[in-house]
């Protein structure tokens, strides 16, 4: 049996188990199975998709693993600026794997169809544009860009080259998010008016103090290339290389790193193109390790009324020293309920609807009036409202959890490769990716410049 066939059967088996156990969305279930079945038809020995991963760090390895769960996908090459990670890639994927420290060598290869870009944020945009212009499909990690000013050029490159391009905010491919969107659109929580979303963490690793290898040095790290697109240049510093998220020169702070997951999910569910006003505040409360970005940040963001949705407010927060422990939530509040999304794969809905009657008595002025007034008012109230109208309706809630072992990244990659094979649109294209990233990057601008940022979501421009 061919490797592809084996992989397919494994994939299908996992899916049947997964879907029959707990999937309570028929639509999502059918779609999931349909995708896998159509993948079987299309994946033959001669139409393998050969990929290369550029940026072989934590996410590069994780993305590669997820990509290779899709039948017919093969790893051809890896690129990284630290030698140890290229050696590790060979340990895992075989000594004949092509490895390089220069992404242009990957792009020059004719045998590579698609690249995964999982570098530090400062390189996403340039490599993505280079890759599309070299005829490669691109899966770019989030945030799509390091600076708002890079977005339109990247969208233009995609539109000109017509290469398949997807941003890596995997929750938009999650079956849980698909189900949540379905229920939201069916009116499960009434008319939306506000959203609170956050990431709370309480650990050194959660606050990006990742392990640095003993052999880190200018001999094993291409430091010059790493910082070549930064305005401010520094002497070699292992912390800046291996913990780049802590420095604005290479990362995008908690806003670009984590708010972007929250806004991607929010835009996906509400169908929004983005907000119109953004304000944020930040503090460096605990992790004073030389970083130049806040470890606690809050943003208030206003979404105006559009044809896709009514006006609503979003508050976002990341807290890296939270006594609440590790916890992430997106709470979408509507006039008749609240949808609480936890992580990428489960959510619950609680419904609360006002009674028809306006209410009288209890915490009210009624008891402050004379007995005669109270009686007259109560008689009048009971005449105007039936007993049923005076009751608060009790509406059943809902909860949904993706099956054990479900991984949204696998589905996000399946969507990406489906698009390469069939031409069907990706789930998270460059316009969606930029519309999610830009307001997050505007949170940084708001914090560093202490001002409200106005954003034109339609045209994707700062006002
Ligand atoms: N989708 C998600 O859930 C998710 C989760 C984690 C990280 N990410 C994203 O993945 C990206 C990588 O994060 P990470 O945690 O893996 O970081 P990391 O530091 O572990 O790995 C980044 C790697 O990129 C390499 N690199 C940097 N510039 C390069 C260049 N010009 N050419 C080739 N290689 C280059 C570095 O050598 C490093 O090994 C980030 O943009 C991050 O936002 C996404």
UniProtKB/TrEMBL annotation:
Residues 237-338 form the GFO/IDH/MocA-like oxidoreductase domain. InterPro entries: Gfo/Idh/MocA-like_OxRdtase_N, Gfo/Idh/MocA_oxidrdct_glycsds, GFO_IDH_MocA-like_dom, NAD(P)-bd_dom_sf. Keywords: Oxidoreductase. One of its GO terms (molecular function) is oxidoreductase activity. It comes from the Bacteria. Residues 49-168 form the Gfo/Idh/MocA-like oxidoreductase N-terminal domain. It holds the Pfam family GFO_IDH_MocA_C3. The keyword Oxidoreductase applies. Signal peptide: none annotated. SUPFAM superfamilies: Glyceraldehyde-3-phosphate dehydrogenase-like, C-terminal domain, NAD(P)-binding Rossmann-fold domains. This is Gfo/Idh/MocA family oxidoreductase. It comes from Mucilaginibacter ginsenosidivorax.
């Amino acid at each position: 049996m061919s490797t592809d066939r084996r992989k397919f059967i494994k994939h299908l088996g996992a899916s049947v188990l997964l879907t029959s156990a707990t999937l309570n969305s028929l639509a999502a279930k059918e779609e999931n199975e349909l995708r896998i079945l159509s993948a079987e038809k299309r994946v033959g020995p001669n139409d393998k998709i050969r990929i290369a991963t550029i940026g072989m760090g934590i996410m590069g390895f994780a993305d590669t693993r997820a990509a290779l769960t899709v039948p017919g996908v093969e790893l051809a090459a890896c690129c990284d600026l630290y030698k140890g990670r290229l050696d590790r890639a060979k340990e895992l994927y075989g000594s004949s794997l092509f490895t390089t420290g220069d992404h242009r060598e990957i792009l020059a290869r004719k045998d590579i169809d698609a690249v995964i870009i999982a570098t530090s944020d400062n390189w996403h945009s340039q490599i993505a544009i280079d890759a599309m212009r070299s005829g490669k499909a691109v899966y770019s990690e989030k945030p799509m860009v390091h600076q708002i000013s890079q977005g339109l050029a990247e969208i233009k490159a995609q539109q000109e080259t017509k290469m398949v391009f997807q941003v890596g905010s995997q929750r938009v491919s999650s079956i849980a998010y698909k189900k949540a969107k379905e229920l939201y659109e069916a009116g499960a929580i009434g008319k939306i008016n506000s959203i609170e979303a956050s990431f709370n963490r309480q650990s050194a690793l959660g606050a990006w103090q990742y392990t640095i290898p003993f052999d880190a040095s200018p001999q094993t790290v291409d430091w010059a290339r790493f910082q070549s697109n930064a305005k401010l240049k520094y002497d070699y510093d292992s912390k800046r290389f291996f913990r780049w998220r802590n420095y604005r020169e290479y990362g995008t702070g908690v806003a670009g790193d984590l708010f972007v997951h929250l806004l991607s999910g929010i835009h996906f569910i509400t169908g929004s193109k983005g907000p119109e006003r953004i304000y944020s505040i930040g503090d460096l409360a605990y992790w004073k390790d030389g970083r130049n970005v806040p470890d606690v940040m809050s943003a208030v963001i206003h979404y105006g009324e559009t044809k896709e949705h009514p006006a609503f407010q979003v508050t976002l927060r990341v807290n890296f020293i939270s006594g609440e422990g590790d916890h992430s939530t997106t709470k979408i509040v509507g006039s008749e309920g609240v949808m609480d999304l936890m992580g990428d794969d489960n959510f619950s809905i609680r419904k609360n609807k006002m009674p028809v009657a306006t209410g009288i008595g209890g915490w009210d002025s009624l008891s402050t009036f004379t007995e005669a007034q109270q009686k007259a008012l109560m008689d009048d109230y009971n005449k105007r409202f039936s007993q049923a109208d005076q009751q608060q309706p009790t509406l059943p809630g809902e909860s949904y959890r993706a099956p054990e072992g479900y991984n949204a990244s696998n589905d996000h990659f399946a969507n990406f490769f489906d698009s390469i094979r069939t031409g069907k649109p990706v789930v998270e294209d460059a316009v969606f990716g930029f519309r999610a990233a830009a307001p997050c990057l505007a949170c940084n601008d708001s914090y560093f410049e202490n001002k409200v940022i106005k954003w034109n979501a339609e045209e994707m421009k700062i006002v």
